[in-house]
Amino acid sequence: MEKIILFLTVLCYALTSCTKEKTDYEAEINTIIPERTQFEEVATIQNGPYTLRIEALGGKLYKGYNEVRLKISSQGQPRVSEATLLPIQTGLDEQTATCPHLHQLTYKADNDYFEGYIVFTDESSEMARWDLQFGFIANKQQHNSIQHVTVQKQSNKNLNMISFIGSDGEQYIIALVAPQKPKVAENDLVAGIYKLNKPTTGSTLAFYSQAEGYTLELDPRMPEPSMGNHSSPNNKDLLPGADGLYHGVVNYTMTGNWTLNFILLNQQGRIIKGTVVPDDFTPGVAGVKSELHIDILF
Questions:
Q1: What pLDDT score does 18 carry?
Q2: Residue-range domain boundaries for the chain
Q3: Nearest CA to 68 among 130, 15, 137, 21?
Q4: Which residues is 73 bridged to in the sheet?
Q5: Which has more confidence, 29 or 131?
Q6: Which residues, other chains included, contact 43 with Cβ-Cβ below 8 Å and sequence gap of 6+?
Q7: Is-contact 150 132, C-beta < 8 A?
Q8: Most CB within 10 Å of its CB: which of 35, 75, 76, 207?
Q9: Which residues sit opposite 9 in a β-bridge?
Q10: Coil, strand or helix: which one is 220?
């Protein structure tokens, strides 16, 4: 009798655990995907007669890829001819680092602002803070400003990123840029790929540059056990575009959890990171993933 009671207790616990896992999964797949489409103010800096306004989508900065705008206004002052940006992360030990970004901001004359991007590698925390250093030239005079900013946890898994060491011993970052909110269809997939450059003589910071001429092979799968790690047709590998980003196509055949399995190849076709995922249909078993992958959800 005691054995029967013990068995029923264990069975009940197991069923409860399974139900809890299922409930958590259902809660995850029902997550509302935030889509940020409007540029809003992040912070304002006053530099003498010049007012600098930093803008980002939704008015907040997140871990991963961020489009940013810088608007500089003044009353009766010489026009600003160029502007630069440098994100700086400072740790508790006062050690500093930067992240992928566009240093020389691009001026958009039609709307009178400078634009660029920042790929924040970490969220703000008690262990490290982020500051944005701006430089601009007006009437051949250099002006500098610095602004503390808060970098939040990425709330949209479709904009996740990954950092890794390649087979060449170099550090890389892949950051998803688009789509923010995928559809059950063929979606244009955009990502930034960046390589860490060792500090130059006289510099203490290691800077990232855009990885040029690489290929990012794509194999999307649904890794949940109930999905059997199935893929989809008509996907296209990501290739470099004129904008410095990598462009491809991912075909999502249904909503849910997807894994973007990647293999990164350099200009010579050598594998920098990533492994082939088996084509086996494996219902009831969690799907195998490439050693280079990003999980998304929509």
A1: 36
A2: 39-152, 156-297
A3: 130
A4: 51
A5: 131
A6: 53, 54, 147, 149
A7: no
A8: 207
A9: none
A10: strand
Q: What is the pLDDT of residues 94-117, one digit of tens each?
A: 999 999 999 999 999 999 999 999
Topology agreement, domain 39-152 and domain 156-297: yes
pLDDT digits (tens, 9 = 90+) for 128-157: 999 999 999 998 999 999 999 999 999 999
Q: Take residue 198 and report the two structure tokens written for it.
A: 């060792």
- Gap between the Cα atoms of 64 and 35, Å rounded: 15
Angstrom distances, CA of residue 67 to CA of 58, 99, 164, 196, 215: 11, 14, 23, 20, 23
Whether the link from the prior residue into 179 is cis, omega within 30° of 0, is yes
| Token pair in block for residue 68 | 């940013």
CATH of 39-152, one of 2.40.40.10, 2.60.40.1470, 3.40.920.10, 2.60.40.640: 2.60.40.640
Residue 5 scores a pLDDT above 80:
no
Q: 204 falls in which pLDDT band (50, 70, 90)?
A: confident
Q: State the pTM of this model.
A: 0.88
Secondary-structure class of domain 156-297 per CATH: mainly beta
Mean pLDDT of the chain: 90
End-to-end CA distance of the chain: 49
Decide if 153 contacts 160 (C-beta within 8 A). Answer: no
Q: What is the 3-state secondary structure (H, E, C) of 221-258?
A: ECCCHHHCCCCCCCCEEEEECCCCCEEEEEECCCCCEE
